[in-house]
Amino acid sequence: MPGRRVFVLALPLVLGAAVAVPAADPPVETETLAPCPHPRGYVCYRASAPVAVDGDLKDAAWEAAPWSDEFGDIEGAKKPKPRHRTRVKMLWDDEALYIAAELEEPHVWATLKDHDCVIFADNDFEVFLDPDGDNHLYGELELNALNTTWDLLLTKPYKDGGRAVTAWEIMGLKTAVKVDGTLNDPSDTDKGWTVEIKWPWKGLTELASEKQVPIPPVDGSQYRINFSRVEWDVDTANGKYTKVKNRPEHNWVWSPQGVIDMHRPERWGYVQFSTAKPGTAAFKPDPDWTVRDNLHRAYYAQHAHRQKHGKYAPTAADLGLKLPADRLGVETTRSGFEMGWTDDKAAKPRYTITHDGRISK
Question: Record's superkingdom (predicted)?
Answer without folding.
Answer: Bacteria
